[in-house]
Structures are given as C-alpha cells and as structure tokens.
Specification:
The chain is mainly α and about 100 residues long. The protein contains four helices and two strands. A two-stranded antiparallel sheet has the order 1-2. β1 and β2 form a beta hairpin. α2 packs across α3. It is extended.
Length: about 100
C-alpha cells in the first residue's frame, strides 16, 4: 500500500514537481473519442463473427486506448515526431 501511495504522489500527480496540465475535452473531442471506441467495438464484433474459430488477439477492454492513440497521432507532428512505432502487447511481453 505504501508503494502505491509513493507512485501516486511522485508520478501521477506531478512531473518534476510541476502540476500536470489538465485538458477539458471539447464536445467535438468527446464525440470523436466515442466514435473511435464504437468503431473498435464494431471491428472486434465483426472479426468474432467472420472468423469464429480463428485465434486472434482481442482488443476487448482497450477501446479507450483508441482515443489516446488518435490524440497521439494528431499531435505528434506538432512536437517534431516523424514516425511512431507501436508493438503489439504480445510482442512486448515476449521482449521482457
């Protein structure tokens, strides 16, 4: 429990002793995030119906990450990022 509180106090609330900036999502941003989550859910359902016996790595439970990745891609160019490489989680687990 003390370890959890330490992480919360040192990483989640501040970075280098500065308050993390908060950003209130606009209505358009909320709608876009919702749309992306629904698309991810529909894609997952389509794959399960189309290929019921095929082994696949499910995205179930990670629909909210779609909004994060969309925001990351939208903002990357503003910070000079030219390429983004994302590894599937099952590959990351094998690397560790």
């Amino acid at each position: 429990m003390a370890e959890r509180q330490w992480f919360t106090g040192n990483f989640e609330l501040t970075v280098n002793h500065k308050e993390l900036p908060s950003h209130e999502l606009s209505r358009e941003e909320k709608l876009k995030a919702h749309e992306l989550m629904l698309k991810a859910k529909c894609w997952e359902r389509f794959l399960s119906v189309k290929f019921p016996t095929l082994k696949r790595y499910s995205g179930e439970g990670s629909e909210a990450a779609m909004a994060f990745h969309w925001c990351l891609m939208e903002q990357a160019g503003n910070y000079g990022i030219r390429e983004v490489v994302d590894l599937p989680s099952y590959l990351v687990a094998q690397i560790d």
